[in-house]
């Protein structure tokens, strides 16, 4: 039986610092070093935000440094790969297109009384006061994408709800780091806002996937039969996420994150 102290003691939280490393080609990079109580082994990863080293609580810093040194060539290749795919941030007056539903729409800039991003017959237009800063622009982009995503959800949901045992209690849109969607125990469907940047069929598939969890909470064969009955092309959409998903998430982060 666990002791009272273990029951009431706060769980340790991840701690972070920065490790500077020189790669084989002479470049110096910073790695975010995370001591994570959930980690079971040393793990080195690279994404659009940079390199990260995860260490279990009992791993020594020396073992972490040695692990990084052993993987310096791999690290250099991964960093070069992500640098080639780097997504530009939103620049006032300079960004010429924005991604929406799988298309790069032309973006025009103009002055307005308040900051807003709108869609018109010629593409997109960003209207903003002279003193509007980057934070206001990012909020406007996020608001625009959320409104567009909710428009899509409002178009798709009515055809699927009659086939479900119950409706979702709520629909939420968030910037998600790895997942594309989730369903909570109380019926809240959470979807990645980056979905509205990609092709609509992929967005609809993720919606169907999460709705089917209202029927089956697992990923059994019975669950996939439910998905297949509602969205026969789901395999193509999974392939799309494998090829384009990382860039969609990176594009959204570049536009709405500081």
Task: Write structural notes for this entry.
The chain is α/β, with parallel strands linked by helices. The chain folds into two domains: 9-84, no CATH class; 139-256, 2-Layer Sandwich (Zincin-like). 39% of the residues lie in helices and 25% in strands. The protein has a four-stranded mixed sheet with strand order 1-2-4-3, with helices on one face. Helix 4 (134-160) packs across helix 5. The chain is globular, with a radius of gyration of 22 Å. It starts with a helix and ends with a helix. The mean pLDDT is 89.
Sequence stretches where pLDDT stays below 50 over 5 or more residues: none
Indicate the percent of residues in helices.
25-40%
How would you state the average pLDDT, rounded?
A: 89
Q: What class do helices, strands and sheet pairing give?
A: alpha/beta
């Amino acid at each position: 039986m666990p002791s009272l102290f273990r029951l009431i003691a706060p769980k340790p939280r991840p701690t972070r610092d920065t490790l500077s490393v020189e790669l084989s080609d002479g470049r110096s990079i910073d790695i975010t070093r995370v001591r994570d109580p959930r980690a079971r082994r040393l793990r080195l990863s690279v994404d659009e935000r940079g390199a990260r080293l995860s260490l279990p609580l009992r791993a020594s810093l020396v073992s972490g440094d040695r692990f990084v040194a052993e993987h310096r060539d791999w690290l250099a290749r991964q960093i070069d790969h992500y640098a080639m795919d780097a997504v530009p941030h939103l620049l006032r007056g300079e960004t010429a297109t924005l991604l929406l539903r799988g298309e790069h729409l032309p973006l025009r800039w103009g002055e307005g009384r308040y900051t807003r991003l709108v869609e018109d017959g010629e593409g997109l237009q960003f209207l903003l006061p002279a003193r509007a800063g980057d934070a206001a622009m990012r909020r406007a982009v996020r608001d625009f994408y959320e409104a567009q995503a909710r428009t899509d959800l409002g178009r798709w949901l009515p055809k699927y709800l009659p086939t479900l045992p119950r409706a979702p209690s709520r629909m939420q849109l968030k910037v998600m780091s790895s997942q594309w969607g989730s369903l909570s125990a109380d019926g809240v469907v959470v979807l990645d806002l980056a979905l509205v940047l990609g092709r609509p069929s992929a967005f609809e598939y993720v919606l169907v996937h999460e709705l089917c969890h209202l029927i089956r909470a697992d990923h059994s064969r019975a669950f996939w039969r439910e998905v297949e009955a509602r969205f026969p092309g789901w395999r193509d959409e999974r392939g799309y996420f494998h090829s384009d998903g990382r860039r969609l998430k990176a594009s959204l982060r570049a536009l709405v994150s500081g």
